[in-house]
Amino acid sequence: MPNPIVTHSDLSGALPLVARGKVRDLYQIDDQTLLFVATDRISAYDVIMENGIPDKGIILTLLSAHWFVVLTQSVPNLRTHFRSLDLPAHIPHDLHKQLLNRSMQVRSFRIFPIEAIVRGYITGSAWSEYRKSGRVHGMEVQRGLRESEAFPGGPIYTPSTKAEAGKNDENIHPDKAAEIVGEKYAQRIEELSLLLYSKAREYALERGIIIADTKFEFGLDTTTDDVVLVDEILTPDSSRFWPASAYKVGEAQASFDKQYLRDWLVSQSLKGREGVSMPEDVVQNTEAKYREAFERLVGKRWVDVVADRCCYSHDNLKHL
């Protein structure tokens, strides 16, 4: 039986609601712990669609948890906010079906108000800016690049502002990010973002996926002064995933992410418009792309994950 589409979580007062984002609803468990609930909402061009994508929140949650394990194993001393996919004990049983495997217990940190974007290939808004000015996020890059080409000098760090719901993120120069968060933290965020992207790109490429670009977010542990990896990571929502077998420089790429939705919105002259409902074929095709990305990266069939409706703990996530 298909899982119900969840575009709005409702814990019936079991936990206090902290905030609703574009995709996630945040609830307070205690002074140090939050419950992230990934809904099936989907946004494009900073606008939330009226209808959702089946199982999207579950895909994002389980894939993020998988990446937390992969990266902590490959990056020494990496700290993340991830605690568990188990539901808090005081969540009523009748809410478990709504929340199971789309919820994540995380540590609460002070969030840096920037998005740490790493680009390995020139595409999307970077390609648009480059065609107009020869720059990316205000930075000079090599001339003569073609669409979807890898940056010759390696991946580049291209931060953006972290806008509130209903507002647009703004691409900024790394120097501006340093002004926002402070030079010490900006340097650590940049170094960590590039390292994490490099490790993830190698891992994904072995599984037939090119990570063209991705977005990380970080928080600050004020007790230790450590920069901590937070939020979702390396999902079809926060990254561009391209099939390596079909990669060709000089053109737009097929993808396993929400670029399909973006392209549909542009083709229908709906980019940035509020109140858009996706037709069923767009919903189904987007769902299929998210599932394929999950299966390739995790190495497990989605139907097996759906059939095994248990809560994964940090210790057994490696078996996903």
TL;DR?
With 320 residues, the chain is of the alpha+beta class.
Descriptive account of the structure:
With 320 residues, this protein is an alpha+beta fold. The chain has 8 helices and 16 strands. The strands form 4 sheets. Strands 8, 9, 12, 13, 14, 15 and 16 form a 7-stranded antiparallel sheet that branches. Strand 4 and strand 5 form a beta hairpin. The protein is globular, with a radius of gyration of 19 Å.
Topology (elements, then pairings):
Elements: E1 17-20, E2 24-30, E3 33-38, E4 43-44, E5 47-48, H1 56-74, E6 82-84, H2 96-99, E7 103-107, E8 110-111, E9 114-119, H3 124-133, E10 135-136, E11 139-140, E12 156-157, E13 160-161, H4 174-181, H5 183-205, E14 209-221, E15 226-230, E16 239-243, H6 259-267, H7 280-298, H8 302-307
Antiparallel strand pairs: 1-2, 2-3, 3-7, 4-5, 6-7, 8-14, 9-12, 9-13, 9-14, 10-11, 14-15, 14-16
